Every structure is written in structure tokens, then in C-alpha cells.
Automatic annotation (TrEMBL):
This is DUF4349 domain-containing protein. Keywords: Coiled coil, Membrane, Signal, Transmembrane, Transmembrane helix. Residues 156-220 form a coiled coil. Residues 78-289 form the DUF4349 domain. The keyword Coiled coil applies. The chain crosses the membrane at residues 268-290. It comes from the Bacteria. The keyword Cell membrane does not apply. Residues 1-21 form the signal peptide. PROSITE patterns: PROKAR_LIPOPROTEIN.
Amino acid sequence: MRSKLAVIVAVVSLVSCGATHEFSSGDISTKAGSSVESAAESANILTDQPNELVAMEADASSPAAPPQDPAVIAGQPQLIKQAQLNLLVDSVDDSLKKASQQIRTHQGDILDLQDNHIEDVQRTAYLRIRVPQAKLDQLLAELAALGSIQQQGLSAEDVSTQLVDAQARLRNLQKSEESLLKIMERSGEISHVLDVSRELSRVREQIEQIDARVQNLQTQVRYSTIDLTLAAAVAPQPIGRPLGETIGSTWQDATQSVGELTVGLMQLGLWLLAYSPYLLVIAIAGAVGYRTLRRRPSA
């Protein structure tokens, strides 16, 4: 029971040093080594193991650290850049061809292309471009020369701190993984192996998540995006309709008008039929009154 408790204490101490603290790139190796040594000492006290076991855990938990991004080590800002450019061009088709050629020349890619070509509406085209950050400014200058600039903008986000913290946590978790593997090799009881295996699975899951985040950030830093919109300078003029189409449309309108008139007269007849009793009473009363007036002798 005491040996099982020692293993759990050592595992928790090793993992907590990488999951609960954020380190800078300068002192990460020193703090990781001291945390592993303190975890081994705690396990030695609880189980009364010899000092050789402590030395083995300390040696197993200090593998070579994975290489860091040279730009991060040098302290260069890690920027994610996004640009927007709206142009008014003479020909959308010609501008699309030229823009595609310029993008290929600068080793860029078109991530999205939408060409809105609707009759009697100004034609527009939208492109989302990815280009190496080192070639961003030059490509923007060449794209701007395709037409008249209506709107442009550039935004940048510094993710240097996020990269340093994520890489530090990744190194700590990798050290913890190595220590857990060594503990599994020395554990003889099945219950001990299962406890360490569950903790090892959790550490590996965190390693995969943080490693994916680091790679995603590094990709966004290496490649910038451009949202390019091309709009035609002159909207297309409506083309005159052919004579046959005009005559056909006129005949259709005339027949439709006749139909509407016929329906209207039928509706009127139905209304008169519905009110015919009242209209008959009014007509009889009018006739009687008229005759009465004619028979009255004049003074």
C-alpha cells in the first residue's frame, strides 16, 4: 500500500510541475529538473527506498529537450499578419489572371475564390490568399497596381508569449512522460501499472493537444493571409431585347389583361346576382313611386 502511494505521489508531482506553472524559455530546464528531484525525494521518504532509486528517477526525467524555434529563442516577435485589399479594376477576368500569376510567383496559394457574375449587377470577385510572410509586402504592392484602391488594411497579432509558454509546457510534459515510462518499467504490481498507465495516457493527450497548437501557431506566423476583392469599374449595360421576344412578351401581357378583365366581369355579375332581391325591391318601389307622381292631378 505504501509503495502504491509513493508511485501516485511521484506521478502527481511530476505532472503538476508541467500543467500548473508557466515558465520562460531561460529557466525551464532548471525548474523541470528540480521538480523531478523533489518528486523522487517524496516517493523515497514514503517508501523508505534507497537513494539509488532517487538517482534513477532524476536521470530518467532529464532527456534532451526538443529544439525551439530559432526566432523565438532570438526574441524576435512572432506576428500573425492579415491584410485586406479592395480594388476597382477595368476587367475582372484580366485582373484575376494577373493576380493568380503574381501569387504563384511569390509561392502563395489561393485558399478561396468566389466570382459573382450576375446580369445587370456590378461584377465582383473575392480571393483569400496565403503567402509566406516574408513576401507579403511585395505581393500587396503588386496586387495594388492592378487597379484603383478602394480600401486596404493590415492587422498583426503577436503570439510570441503564447509560443514560449506552449513550448515550455510541452517540454515539461515530455519529461513527465519519460519519468512515467521508467516508473512503469520498475512497477511489478498490476494495480501500480494501471495507475501509471492512466496517468501516462492523460499526459500524452496533453502533449498531442499542445503540440498541435504550437504547430498551428507556427504555421500562421510563417504564412500571412490576404483578403482581395476585385470589382468592375463599369457596371454592364442592359442589352436590348430581340423583336420576337418583345412581341411575345407584349402578347402575353395582352392576354393576361383580357383574362383579368373577364374574371373581373364575372365577379361583378356574381355580386349583382347575390344582391338581385334587394335590387328588385328597389326597382319596384321606384316604379310605383313614378306612376303615383304621374297620376297626381296638377294644380
